[in-house]
């Protein structure tokens, strides 16, 4: 019996019982050799895309989403704007940095 078939039997048996398995370095190498690492990464990426789309739908309901014109492209007039679009002012960040510089200056002086 090959190492892979032993691993498969262990995997199935523990899955049926609802338990996990510990993977040795050799088990890990076997799984990577048959593409499990790539499959895992692809599935994780797919799930992240789904979650991102779900968040986008919650933030921007369908009636407010950008629509496409007859060419299938999103038209600028239909793209919703937000208060974060365009140039942002960093006055608060500048003020916070100045406060930290002042506090550090006081802390270092005897």
Fraction of residues in β-strands: under 5%
Main sheet summary: none
Residues in helix, %: 55-70%
Could you state the order of secondary-structure elements as H and E? HHHH
Radius of gyration, Cα only, in angstroms?
27 Å
Distinct helical segment count: 4
Termini distance?
Answer: 75 Å
Query: By helix and strand content, what is the structural category?
Result: mainly alpha
Mean pLDDT: 76
Q: What sort of overall outline do the alpha carbons produce when their principal axes are compared?
A: elongated
Number of separate strands: 0
Assembly form of the protein: single chain
Low-confidence stretches: none
Structural notes for this entry:
It is a single chain. With 110 residues, the chain is an all-alpha fold. It has a domain at 25-62. The protein is 59% helix and 0% strand. It has four helices and no strands. The longest helix is centred in the middle third of the chain and has 24 residues, at 36-59. The model has no long low-confidence stretch (mean pLDDT 76).
Main attributes?
59% helix, 110 residues, 4 helices, mainly alpha
Task: Give a brief description.
The chain contains 4 helices and no strands. The chain is mainly α.
List the helices and strands and how they pair.
Elements: H1 3-16, H2 25-33, H3 36-59, H4 91-108
């Amino acid at each position: 019996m090959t190492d892979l078939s032993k691993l498969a039997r262990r995997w199935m048996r523990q899955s049926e019982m609802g338990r996990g398995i510990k993977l040795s370095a050799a088990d890990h190498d076997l799984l990577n050799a048959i593409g499990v690492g790539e499959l895992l990464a692809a599935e994780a990426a797919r799930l992240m895309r789904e979650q991102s789309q779900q968040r986008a739908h919650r933030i921007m309901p369908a009636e407010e989403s950008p629509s496409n014109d007859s060419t299938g492209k999103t038209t600028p007039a239909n793209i919703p704007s937000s208060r974060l679009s365009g140039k942002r002012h960093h006055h608060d960040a500048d003020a916070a940095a100045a406060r930290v510089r002042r506090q550090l200056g006081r802390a270092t002086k005897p």
